[in-house]
Each structure stands twice: as structure tokens, then as C-alpha cells.
Specification:
This protein has 231 residues and is α/β, with parallel strands linked by helices. Helix content is 39%, strand content 19%. Helix 1 runs parallel beside helix 8 and helix 7 crosses helix 8. The chain is globular, with a radius of gyration of 19 Å. It starts with a strand and ends with a helix.
Length: 231
């Protein structure tokens, strides 16, 4: 049974990148869209060059020209592209060499059928405050994501995740991954203590989930092993 993947976006320094890796994240996000967390391709490439193996390298874009995205992705050595704008289904199919994540602001009007039109590796549901462009970090009504969880989407969640609601979200929605950004920042910078605390909480959930599965299968395994011994 796979563990919940954890990504941290807004990486702008090698120190933050290595601290996130040490905390146990699976992927790092580099924001190339207009944002206070924006990083230049040159800086991102220099950081990525120093990363250890098996760490995902995600580029975050918004309504960027496809050729520009391809240039940045190749230059930096990205393996995943994450789109937060008005990108169409056709646009998201222009990058066959990369995994693609399409972000959607969660709302009662967002349908599973609409998201199915995007043949992406995963979808990301995020909160967006009314009237505000870009991603937000306020807590949304997690019940709105239930239809996507039931449909077994490769589902990534972002926005307002914290130590108080995290375990409940994992239990109810069972997401493929979590995108932690604002919830692990202090004064605009990634705080390793906050990040380590949330990653530890997530891994504890993974362990408990695996333990429940093993316990459920244990009696049957015991029965078969006993029957084999008697046969």
C-alpha cells in the first residue's frame, strides 16, 4: 500500500530544499508564476543540481506559453509540471515527456466530469478566496472533495492543512498526495520544525493504515499457513 506523497512548494534556496528533503518530503515545487515565492530558472536549476536522487522536481506555472514551459523544464531538469491557471485540456496534453498536475479551485460547481476531461497524472484541489487570483491557503470545506475521492482520482490536496485537521482529511479523503506551502512557512520562509511535524503526522497515519491492513489479512494468512503445515 503506497504512502501519501508530500510536496512542498515555494523552494527558493538550497538551504530550504535540503531542509525539506531532510524532513522527509517526496517532492519540491519551484514556482515560476508571478508570486512572492517565485524563483528564477537559473536559481532553480542550481538548487536542483544539488538535490539527492529520488526527489521529485515540480515546476509550478500559470497561463504560461507552452514553449516557455518546455524551455524552463528542460533547463532546470524538472520531471513534473503543475498548472494553476486557465490551461485547457489540449494545453495539458502538449507535454508528453512530463507528468502533469492540473490545479482547480474547489467549489460546489466543480464537477468530476470536468476534471476527467483533463488526462493528467493527477488533479490538485485548492482553496481560492473569493475575488482573489492565484492559489490560496485558507481551509476549504473538505466535503466538497468527497466525489473526487470516491472516484479514485489521483488526488492532491492543498490549502489550509494543519496539525488539527490533517488526520481527519487523510482519513476521509485518502488523497494520493498533499501540497504543503503556507502551512509550513514562518515569516515567508519554510520552517523545518513545522514541516517535520506535519510530515511526521502524515507518516504516522501511513503506518497506522498499513497496520490495519496487515491485521485484517493476518487471520486468513494464519489459516492458510496452518493448513499448509497440516497438509
Amino acid at each position: 500500500m503506497s504512502h501519501v506523497r508530500v510536496k512542498v512548494s515555494g523552494i527558493r534556496t538550497l538551504k530550504s530544499a535540503l531542509a525539506a528533503v531532510q524532513a522527509g518530503v517526496d517532492a519540491l515545487g519551484f514556482v515560476f508564476a508571478a508570486s512572492s515565492r517565485r524563483v528564477s530558472p537559473e536559481k532553480a536549476a542550481a538548487i536542483i543540481k544539488e538535490l539527492p536522487p529520488f526527489i521529485g522536481r515540480v515546476g509550478v506555472f500559470k497561463d504560461e506559453e507552452a514553449e516557455q514551459v518546455k524551455e524552463i523544464a528542460a533547463f532546470c531538469g524538472l520531471d513534473t509540471l503543475q498548472f494553476h491557471g486557465e490551461e485547457t485540456e489540449e494545453y495539458c496534453c502538449l507535454f508528453p515527456s512530463y507528468k502533469v498536475i492540473k490545479a482547480f479551485p474547489i467549489s460546489p460547481d466543480l464537477s468530476v466530469a470536468r476534471c476527467r476531461q483533463y488526462r493528467c497524472s493527477a488533479i490538485l484541489l485548492q482553496n481560492r478566496p473569493p475575488g482573489k487570483k492565484g492559489s490560496g491557503s485558507l481551509v476549504f470545506d473538505w466535503r466538497l472533495a468527497l466525489p473526487f475521492s470516491i472516484e479514485r482520482f489521483p488526488l492532491v490536496l492543498a490549502g489550509g492543512l494543519n496539525r488539527d485537521n490533517l488526520t481527519g482529511v487523510l482519513r476521509v479523503l485518502k488523497p494520493y498526495g498533499l501540497d504543503l506551502t503556507g502551512s509550513v512557512e514562518r515569516d515567508g520562509l519554510i520552517d523545518q520544525e513545522l514541516l517535520r511535524g506535519l510530515v511526521t503526522q502524515i507518516r504516522r497515519w501511513d503506518y497506522q493504515k498499513l497496520s490495519r491492513v496487515n491485521f485484517a489479512f493476518a487471520p486468513e494468512q494464519y489459516h492458510h499457513s496452518g493448513a499448509a503445515a497440516r497438509g
